Amino acid sequence: MELFLQFLFSGITVGAIYALIALGFNIVYNATSILNLAQGEFLVFGGLLMWYFLEKLNLPYGFSFLLALGATGFVGLLMERFTIRPLQKTADPLLLILITIAFSILLRGILMFLFGKDPYGYRPIDEGPPLIIFGAILQRQVLWILLFVVLTLIFLYLFFNCTMIGRAMKACSVDKTSASLMGINTSQMVMLSFFLSGIFAGLAGILITPITFIEYDKGPLLTIKGFTSAILGGLGSNWGVMAGGFLLGILESLIAGYVHSGLKDALALLLMLIMLLFRPAGLFQSAEQARLRKL
Amino acid sequence: MKDTILNPNTKTYIYLLIFYIVILSAGFSIKDPYILTIFVFAGLNALSALGLSLLMGLAGQISLGHNGFYGLGAYLSAILSVYYKVPVLLSIVIAVTFTSLFAILLAIPALRLKGHYLAVATLGFGEIIYLLLNEWGPGGPSGFGDIPRLYLGAIELSSPLHFHLFVWTLFAVAFFFSLNLANSTYGKVLRALHASETALRTLGINIVSLKVKIFILSAFLTALSGAIYAHFVTFVSPATFSVFYSVLLLMMVMLGGIHSLWGAPIGALFITFLPETLRPFKEYDILIYGLILTLGLIFFRKGIIHLLEVGAKRWLPFLK
Amino acid sequence: MATLLEVKGIYKSFGGHEVLKDVNLKIEELTIHALIGPNGAGKTTLLNIINGIERADRGNIYLLNMDITNYTVEARVRVGLARTFQLLEVFSGLTVLENILTALFAKNPWGIIKSMLFGERFHPIEGQLKKRALEYLEFVNLSHRADEEVQNLPAGEQKLLEIARALALEPKILLLDEPAAGLNNRETRILGEILKKICREKGITILLVEHDMELVMRVSDLITVLNFGEVLAEGPPTLIQKDPRVIKAYLGEDF
Ligand SMILES: Nc1ncnc2c1ncn2[C@@H]1O[C@H](COP(=O)(O)OP(=O)(O)O)[C@@H](O)[C@H]1O
Ligand SMILES: [Mg+2]
Questions:
Q1: How many domains does chain A have?
Q2: Does residue C165 sit in the same domain as residue C227?
Q3: What CATH number has the domain bearing residue A153?
Q4: How far is the CA of C3 from the centre of ligand 2 (A)?
Q5: Cβ–Cβ under 8 Å, residues A92 and A98
Q6: Distance (Å) from the C-alpha of residue B113 to the closest C-alpha of chain C?
């Protein structure tokens, strides 16, 4: 029981991170039908930048937090402006995939240039002793992570239902042509989607680094994990992909605990392949629903 | 477009002959074994990149999992020859055949996927192979050595020059057949796949079978390159076969020029020799690769081959 | 006259939105049968279902009394169905001639190994194919464009190319989705002549989806009107022209 709880806690922790990456995937996907393979690098960028502000510049925690978050969103903006937009005219999906890969390598290169190959970490938000729940250890940071996930959910709900710009974005993801006929500036929506995806991945990076440490080349695996979560939950729905993230995190942690830790990544990838082949619309929505979302 | 080398053109075959002769003469005249070794790697990369170019440039299908085929080819042949004492030539044949068959397993379902989905599915496949080599490959992450060298009949390929001649000859043969394919109607159907799958289906062509075949051919060439790599370096470890290898192949194909099969050898030579010229910046190779690939995709989509074509037309008017 | 293609009780909905409701259609051999109706009536969807790209929720398709409802797209081509698209689906990157070659190849394919061994130059069939491909181009007056890249052709000529490519499959029935869209008056007239020639000379039946009423009235033997996924009227051009229900359906579109 203790062991199980322990695995569950670590699964939820990782799952929250996957959920945030998957959310970024989904927001960009809804706006552009592009899978941004630089998601994982956004996360690493957020974590390392936070370290820089906090440990190198000795800025206050909250201030560093906001700064790192904004900077990651800004990188998303830059990416859209300078790599996606020039190529969107060509409308060649092959090129659009390749450019996100190219940009992810570039970002990784920049990270290595700036931070080298060492892993980095910093103090958690709350430095109190970990909680013990039925014998299992729960770090306080995990509670903070969950709090931020809940805040994200509330933000998403309010943003997409109660603000003009959020509703416009939703309209775009359902039907781009009609949205632009209704006077919505679709290219602004694309930019905004990259900005938001940067913010969410950055948030994940800032929150997880105190627990796991992070180095420049953690990105690709996180990208794939985020994508697997999105596929599990079903691309198209923000709630679905986030649920997929938690599901994958818990699954992985149980496999690592009860089966074999070396195999957890390979099995997660296998799960992704199987999902892609047999249920590409995800666990929670039918192919018909996904089709309506132009999957 | 009429001038791209994918179009039927006897000149292409003449260029191939010239290219082959130049490369071989370079091999004979270069005495520095280190540079020759890099030429061998370039040849192996060219063979792999040719596989990717047929898949991506011709048929418009993306793969980020070719490191998996490269790794399977290398590891299988190495394991067979080291642990089961299979003669090297035979071990290569078995390894490449098995990897090609394995590619069918992945290809049939994976090629129902399109675009981004295909990209991530193949990425996942390559990563799985890499993780499994780490976990279950002999020696784990540090790999294993003492892999026997290649024999051709009674001749042991012991020097870089031997390998240079062997690898580039193999490449020339593979390239000849690939040119045939690209120039044939079959090749045009493959290019049509890139333009409109729907239309191709309504012509009654089974596009899944088409994709599976080109996928297997592509995997075959890359696995062959991997197997020879193992017996050239005589040591393998998983690090060589990470997703970064797929990215390198991608760069070769894109930078060389995706619209022409010639992009593969030219991109391979360029990318393989690049780290040597950038030696002082070795620490920052990822940054430089990232810059080259990003800028190349935005500003230089036609590739080096396009520059060569324009240059040739300009300075060598008798070719036209 | 025998019925070549029969569509029986077709229903189709997209996510709860019913696009086709109990559509029945009989197309007689050696006729040009027009299918008209306002935008969104479901014409393209019906063509997709006949052609097999899309599956009907209910209903059957018969070709010469053979039930082909469960045939794949490829199998339907083999029994004699060919089509063109409302939104162009030509193979850009290939020349006009090569576009036709792909269809001839599809009709009589050979393997990848053979192609690798022999290439284009050394393969005996490839030369013959080119001659036949040129004949199809001749038929739609495009032979002078044979060696141009198709994306450099004006839309009207690309439409003709699609027709020639479909003809190269030697089908029994040709499904055309708005072939005159984007053509000027003169081109439309020429298209009309070509359609008649296809039917009379080549003996190929045509199902013509078209908005250009003048063309429809001139070439078709029978017209079916589709409105909101239902067959509204059917008859020869002279009667359809005067049918008050049809006039209302079309005028209603404007209000
Ligand atoms: N794949 C699809 N998903 C959802 N709705 C569709 C799809 N295809 C067509 N429709 C809808 O079906 C209706 C009929 O479309 P269509 O067959 O293209 O009409 P037509 O060709 O007569 O103009 C339209 O309302 C269209 O929006
Ligand atoms: Mg239509």
A1: 1
A2: no
A3: 1.10.3470
A4: 25
A5: no
A6: 17
Look up tokens 């071989």; give the residue: B24
Could you tell me if B290 lies within 8 Å of chain A, comparing CB atoms? yes
Would C64 be classed as within a structural domain?
yes
pTM, two decimals, is 0.88
Average pLDDT score over chain C? 89
Tell me which chain B residue has its CA closest to the CA of residue A117: B283
**What is the per-residue burial (b if ≥16 Cβ within 10 Å, else e) of B297-308?**
bbeebebbbbeb
C50: confidence class by pLDDT, cuts 50, 70, 90: very high
Domain of residue A72: give its range. 2-293
Q: Which residue's alpha carbon is at the smallest distance from atom 2 of ligand 1?
A: C14
Q: Which amino acid is at B108?
A: I
A131-133 and C3-14 strand pairing = unpaired
Beta bridge partners of C11: C58
pLDDT, averaged across chain A: 88
Question: Going by CA atoms, what residue is nearest to atom 25 of ligand 1?
Answer: C40
Contact A224 B110 (CB under 8 A): no
C146 in a domain, yes or no?
A: yes
C86: in domain: no
Q: Which of A167-171, B203-207, C66-70, C226-230 is predicted with the least confidence, judged by mean pLDDT?
A: A167-171
Of B62, B112, B120, the CB nearest to A94: B62
Percent of chain B with pLDDT strictly greater than 90:
59
Q: Are residues C51 and C76 in the same domain?
A: yes
- The first and second tokens of residue C160, run together, are 């003709």
Helix (H, G, I), strand (E, B) or coil at C3: strand
Q: Cβ of A289 under 8 Å from any chain C Cβ?
A: yes
Predicted confidence at residue B156, as pLDDT, reads 80
The residue type at B165: L
Q: What is the CATH number of the domain that holds C27?
A: 3.40.50.300
Instruction: Say whether the ipTM exceeds 0.90.
Output: no
Residues of the domain holding C130 = 91-170
Residue C181 in domain: no
Q: Could you give the number of structural domains in chain C?
A: 2
Does C207 sit in the ligand 1 pocket, CB within 6 Å?
Answer: no
